[in-house]
Design a protein that fits this description.
By secondary structure, the chain is an alpha+beta fold. It contains 1 helix and 2 strands; from the N terminus they run αββ.
């Protein structure tokens, strides 16, 4: 995943070009839904290109007290 494309992948229905993905399915909603859920729980979600291709997504949620 090109670094300049990462932020846009959190937008609904946004996907990389078909030649950049290994699967043809999906609607481009996964990261948008993950962001909404994470924010609803006062968490943080971030993504960056993985070292050997793909995307690394990190989610931090607050501890339950």
């Amino acid at each position: 995943v090109p670094a300049e494309a990462v932020a846009g992948l959190f937008e609904p229905f946004r996907r990389l070009a078909r030649d950049r993905t290994s699967q043809g399915g999906g609607a481009g909603l996964g990261l948008a839904i993950a962001r909404s859920i994470t924010q609803a729980h006062d968490g943080i979600i971030a993504a960056r290109p993985a070292e050997h291709g793909g995307l690394r997504v990190d989610v931090q949620l607050p501890a339950v007290t």
